[in-house]
Write a structure and sequence with these properties.
154 residues
Length: 154
């Protein structure tokens, strides 16, 4: 497990400027870290959800309305141990926040990135290998996020 300093380096390098020095809160029921939100004049609350692993970070732009919670966007950052790089980003309109949808979309975004990197390097990777590796990367971010939260708060 990473030390607090390593986690902070990951967070500092991976998070957009809005996350710099942002207070992250752990939501146990959703197993996700999230920023403090803001509420619009229309009464909708907006915040960022964050899931860590040692290789990628997924941020979710979330909006809570009167009836539904919406996914407004996903950003996936790759982390090589020293710096994070945005590897995928997708925006959504009126997409209800459903964990299985987010998982599937994240896997697809990572798979497309990996496929593109293989093509750029002149290689080819079998589809089942791409599927398996993307699923593994995303599964790592679905593991218990509480240890990351505890490390951030030490």
């Amino acid at each position: 497990m990473e030390t607090k300093n390593e986690i902070m380096v990951i967070a500092d390098k991976a998070m957009p400027a809005v996350f710099k020095n942002a207070e992250l809160t752990y939501n146990a029921s959703k197993n996700i870290l999230h920023t403090q939100g803001y509420t619009s004049q229309a009464g909708n609350t907006y915040y960022e959800g964050v899931r860590f692993s040692d290789r990628i970070i997924i941020t979710q732009q979330i909006g809570e309305g009167f009836f539904y919670t919406f996914l407004n966007g996903l950003r996936i950052f790759g982390f090589n141990g020293k710096e994070a790089t945005l590897i995928a980003e997708k925006s959504y309109h009126c997409q209800i926040h459903i964990d299985s949808f987010i998982r599937d979309e994240s896997e697809n975004l990572v798979k497309e990135y990996l496929r593109g990197q293989a093509l750029l390097s002149g290689g080819h990777v079998e589809e089942n290998v791409l599927d398996s590796f993307a699923q593994s990367l995303i599964s790592d971010t679905m593991k218990n996020q509480l240890p990351y939260m505890k490390q951030l708060n030490q």
